Amino acid sequence: MLSAKSLFQEIVDNDESFQLFCSIAASGESQGGWENGRIAALVPESERALAPKITRHGADEDKHGRIFNALLSKRGLQPVVVPFETDYTMLLEKQGIGLAHERLKADQPLMVADVITYLSHSRVTEQRASDQMVMLRKHFGDHPEVGKAVRMISHDEDNHLAYTHEELLRFAAAGHGRFIQRTLRECALAEIRVYRDVSLAVMAHMGRILGWSRAKSALLTMGIHAMYAYERLIGWRRMVSLRMPDHRDALGGPATPAPEFA
Predict the structure, then answer these.
(1) What is the pLDDT of residues 93-132, one digit of tens each?
(2) Dihedral, CA atoms, 133, 137, 140, 143, nearest 10 degrees?
(3) What is residue 258's three-state secondary structure?
(4) For residues 115, 101, 160 and 229, what is the CA-based torsion angle, rounded to 10 degrees?
(5) In 95-235, alpha helices (H)
(6) How much is the pTM?
(7) Dihedral over Cα of 155, 85, 4, 20: its sign
(8) What letter would DSSP give residue 48?
(9) Cβ-count burial 72-97 (b if 16+ within 10 Å, e if not)
């Protein structure tokens, strides 16, 4: 039976596909860590109180990258070069979503609008990350090899999502509501296109590694396109809604350390 659980089990059971999966994940998380670190350093003076939370966000992303690399190391595997077409973070930047790396490499302070753009981008991408980790936690939370990593990362992604809701609602209350909604919608529509393209690329690489039949690959391709059609029609709205989270101040305090995988 073709399911998310069976597909991920195939990927985990094969060293080459597991190597590619963890390398893609580690690369994206590490890139997110760098971006958050630069944003924390450049927030405007009026938003300096937000800097420790952005720093915590970046530290969590760095930690996730180390976790995926540790999973590889435990198997005696090394990270591999991430194919460009599977690089979700960089492809989003090329779509003009979030803050451009050239902007972050400069030493000029950000404006409030930049901070809102960052939070809106994070609101959308953290929804994707949280949903994916909830699925993995459901099926692999007790897995002897990856379960501990899945549980920790899922917990962190939920915190990141809660933080973006709370901070965007604060900015909305300060009169930025229309800009927030416009930016969220732009981010969401771009993200679902990039996610579709990256999903197709990842599945193509996995299919080659795992020797999937044409029928299986075709069925997965149809499923990815069907998901995109749903998200383009109505599913994107879930990525732009805002509500006060039950867990307030989710990124208050230091990041938790990465677990040992010895």
Answers:
(1) 998 888 999 999 998 999 999 999 999 999 999 999 999 9
(2) 110
(3) coil
(4) 100
(5) 101-105, 112-140, 147-171, 177-210, 214-233
(6) 0.94
(7) negative
(8) G
(9) beeeebebeebeeebbbbbbbbeeeb
